[in-house]
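Predict the 3D structure for this chain.
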Amino acid sequence: MRAVVYREPNRVELADVPRPELEADTDAIVRVRLAGICGTDLHVISGDFSGAKPGMVLGHEFVGEVVEIGAAVKRFRVKDSVMSSDFTACGRCHWCDEGDHWQCGERAFFGTGTAFGPALSGAQAEYVRVPHADTTLGELPAWCSQEAGLLMADNLATGWVATERAAVGAGDCVVVIGGGTVGQLTALSAQAMAAGIVIVVEPSESRRDFSRSQGSLAVHPDDALTMVQRLTGGVGADAVLEAVGSNGPMDLAMALVRPRGRVVSVGAHAAEKWSFPVAKAFSSELTVGFAIGNAIRLRGRLFRLLAGGAFDPTVVIDGRGRLEDAPRLYRELGAQRILKAVLTL
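Done. Predicted structure below.
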């Protein structure tokens, strides 16, 4: 089958690889209809995460059709239309029972090497093997577009969990640091939670313009503190949601948040350490946390939000192509010429 594979740092290519087979009775094989290219994929191919090996199939966002199931799969049948979480979970351990599927001991992350668990072949391919299919997969309703279902796998689930973890409330001043796909969907999620002011902090002028077109305020990082102070009467933001995944944006988040405010990071961090301002956090009684999107837990809620018209997540998709267009779309995404890319198979 054809697949997008990692070849060397910052280079991907289309290759012929073996079609996956069932390896456990809880597996399913899915014929991929739509696959996403994510900022996390850029981290993987640039070497920010460990365990990327030449020839491995990339990608962790997909929707498709079930073509084969193991004997223990009960929720799905051949020909079912499905969406997926970007990682697997067993569905029966303590963590899964608590809804904390990311902490499952059998977690594997599609197409990211061994950075987050055992290596699992990715979904930028004609077929993908899905372990623990009854938990990892979700039904894709006929009314929901494939693109919306795809975004729930990671980007939308991540954006929503940022607002959820930060307990965004009606009338809050919310700052989102980073205007990439996750940042834009975080801003839309904050709006859906009735935040009073949503500010996207982003150096790219085109991405700031996009934020404004979607109902947020937008500002360059150099001017963020001035804007937040002006709009809050010098108090600071109630919640700052960091969607970049590096130390500089975390420093900025700590500067923008008000006393007793909340900072939540959902950016994919690769740095081992960050110089945490303990004295400031203590004296200001700050809450600082980190969160990872969990489509397994959140997809039911997200489906209801989409069905009710709370927002349209697909507005972030501005790069589309076939599987053979993947190398070009990776380059365009890396150069920030596009915001979100999807591949139709």
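The mean pLDDT is 96.
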